[in-house]
C-alpha cells in the first residue's frame, strides 16, 4: 500500500510481484540495502522516499509489532508512509473490519454524483462514514473505485452507460 501513492495498481502489482519473489518478509526487506530496494521499486513514483519509508516501516513492524502488521487504525497511522487511505484499506481488506479508504477515484465519484461535497479526502471520508452504514464501508470503497475506473472516469466519463445517470448531479470540476 505504501507503494500506491502516485502510481497505478498495475504498476504496483508488477513491482511487488518481483520484490516479493526474493524479499517476502519484513526481516528480508529490513536487511536490504536501501539502494537495492530503490532499484526494485523504481517503477513506481517517488521510489526514493517510498524506499526510505518502507525501510523504517519494516523496522517498526519488527521491533514494535513482532513482525506483524498492526490491526488498529491508529497504530497503522503511526507507520511511515501510511495515511488514512492506506490505513482504512489495510483494516478493511487485510483484517476484514470496517474501513473506507478514499483514493482519487472515490474522491471524484462521490463528489461528482453529489453524494458528498468535500474538497479533501479526509472530509470526504468523514462525510461518507456518516451516511453509509459501517458494515458497508469496505464494499462501498470497492464499488466507488470500480465505478470511477470503468464509468465515471476523470476524463470523458461514460455518463450514457452509467446506471445512475438520471440521479447523478454531474458536478464535473
Written account of the structure:
This protein has 173 residues and is an all-alpha fold. The chain has helices spanning 9-22, 26-31, 34-40, 47-65, 73-77, 84-95, 104-112, 121-131, 137-150. Helix 3 (34-40) crosses helix 4. The radius of gyration is 18 Å and the shape is globular. The model has no long low-confidence stretch (mean pLDDT 95).
Question: What's the short version?
Answer:
The chain has helices at residues 9-22, 26-31, 34-40, 47-65, 73-77, 84-95, 104-112, 121-131, 137-150. The chain has 173 residues and is mainly α.
- Count of discrete structural domains: 2
Shape-level CATH architecture of the largest domain: Orthogonal Bundle
Largest sheet: none
**Which CATH C-level class of the largest domain is it?**
Mainly Alpha
Element pattern in H and E: HHHHHHHHH
Q: Residue ranges: pLDDT <50 for 5 or more in a row?
A: none
Q: Which of globular, elongated, flat, extended, rod-shaped describes the shape? A: globular
What Rg is obtained from the alpha carbons, in whole angstroms?
Answer: 18 Å
Oligomer: single chain
The CATH superfamily of the largest domain is Hypothetical protein, domain 2
Helix content: 55-70%
CATH topology of the largest domain, which one? Endonuclease III, domain 1
Amino acid at each position: 500500500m505504501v507503494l500506491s501513492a502516485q502510481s497505478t495498481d498495475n504498476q504496483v502489482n508488477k513491482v511487488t510481484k518481483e520484490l516479493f519473489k526474493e524479499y517476502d518478509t519484513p526481516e528480508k526487506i529490513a536487511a536490504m540495502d536501501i539502494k537495492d530496494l530503490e532499484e526494485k521499486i523504481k517503477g513506481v513514483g517517488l521510489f526514493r522516499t517510498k524506499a526510505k519509508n518502507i525501510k523504517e516501516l519494516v523496522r517498526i513492524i519488527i521491533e514494535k509489532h513482532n513482525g506483524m502488521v498492526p490491526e488498529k487504525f491508529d497504530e497503522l497511522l503511526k507507520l511511515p508512509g501510511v495515511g488514512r487511505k492506506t490505513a482504512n484499506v489495510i483494516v478493511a481488506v487485510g483484517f476484514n473490519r470496517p474501513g473506507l479508504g478514499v483514493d482519487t477515484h472515490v474522491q471524484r465519484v462521490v463528489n461528482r454524483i453529489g453524494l458528498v461535497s468535500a474538497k479533501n479526502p479526509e472530509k470526504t471520508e468523514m462525510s461518507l462514514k456518516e451516511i453509509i452504514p459501517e458494515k458497508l464501508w469496505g464494499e462501498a470503497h470497492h464499488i466507488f473505485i470500480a465505478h470511477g475506473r470503468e464509468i465515471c472516469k476523470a476524463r470523458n466519463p461514460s455518463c450514457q452507460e452509467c446506471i445512475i445517470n438520471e440521479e447523478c448531479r454531474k458536478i464535473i470540476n
